[in-house]
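Hi,

Apologies if this is the wrong queue. I'm a grad student, and the batch job for Bifunctional solanapyrone synthase from Podospora fimiseda produced an output file that my downstream script rejects. I'm not sure whether the problem is my script or the file. Here is the sequence I used:
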Amino acid sequence: MMSSINNPEILAALTSALGSNPASLSQPGTAEYENDNGSYYTAFANEVKPSFIAKPTTVEQVQSLVRILRPFVLAGSCQLAIRGAGHTPIASSVNIQDGITIDTRGLKGIVLSQDKSTVDISVGETWTTVYADLDRHGLSTAGGRVGRVGVPGFILGGGLSMVSSRRGFACDSVTEFKIVLASGELVRANADENTDLWVALKGGLNNFGIVTSITMTTFPATDIWGGITYFLPDTFMQIMSKACGFVNNEIDQDVHFMWSAGYGYGHRAVSCVMYHTQGKVKPPAIQSFLDVQPQIEQMSTIRTAKNSDFCEELGRFSIDGNRQYWATLTIKPDLDLINTFHERWEETLETIKDVEGLIFSLGFHPLTKGLLEASEKAGGNAMDIPPSDGPLFVILINPQWALSQDDSRIFGAVERMMGGFKQLAAEKGLLHRYLFTNYADKADDVMVGYGKESLERLKATSAKYDPEGVFQKGVPGGFKLV
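Support response: The file is valid. Your script probably expects a header line. Output copied below for reference.
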């Protein structure tokens, strides 16, 4: 690819599309560029250096950018990255070396429908701003569990919310996308109009255009009871035995769990993040976990609070700009397999725990049958997981560390561990094809994990709405269909 950094034609095109406001375009060598390019979730994305950062503030500017850059993309003169909040740990998904990063954080707006049954959210918003706005109306929606996460990447990757057991993946609550296609045309995708595109965007990522707003169903907000309980390390298998029992005998679709074994700064602990989204105190499904001992009682955060408060709490477990990433796989619940995974995780930890600033966790996120049934009823999505496949566990490996000289060591250790996990699960017939996109690593074949039929539908949708492959060839970051 030809670098666009010194291409006066591309600079002129960007200026034409964005207008005369100098704040709408950042270039290397300026304080504004350094600020914009240093604001990602991971250090890896901050270290990528685009030639230009285009910052549209209107849908019309997005359309102009797509129209005016399309010939350069097709000619191979430049490539693009599309950024929301920039929370994905995969640097190439949200930034692009020597290309043009289109930063959509300037697209603002949260608008309730007249009957308050849906909310239209512009893609520059985060879940913190969405929840704050909806709180004023006594409403909520199936958004992110971490407040500072952006709206578009979370939804386009599928998304898990606190209400997923009752409402499916977060993307299943989307009633409409507005998206700028490769032609520059703005279209609606919903259950009645461009329905194939609507389904594809629910998990289909940046393969079809630039989404400018997302309309989601709302529901009455209630206080939530729950928080985080910490246990001593030896309780892990007791906790996971109860976790397997919970997902195999789902008795309460208003309960949401996350379980993990973790290490940080020389200490190990087991954590259970648990909520009752209707505010019920100590419901039976949660009480069994509260009964586990020994707990680290002084660290418990169990309380009654608003959704936004819990999302801000989870946001404090990581800091933007750190060296951090995620790796994932999906398995069927099996206690023996989980025990082996935990042993392998502990073995890996022993080889890297001297790394400066290391935080290392092994997490389990349930995909209950209730979640998959609700997802199916919502009109389908790109993931295409039949309810009969459930329940499942999405496993999340999350290392964080301080120094660049430890990068290859951490990546190598986690890659070897994950390879072993996948082989073990496959040998036991417990490995599921699906990879939770929001947690996937850049080497993962996410789209193949959606299944053959879904992949063929996604490719057909791409060919229909982007026949020249602008968003396949010109936006190389993320998980591509071809």
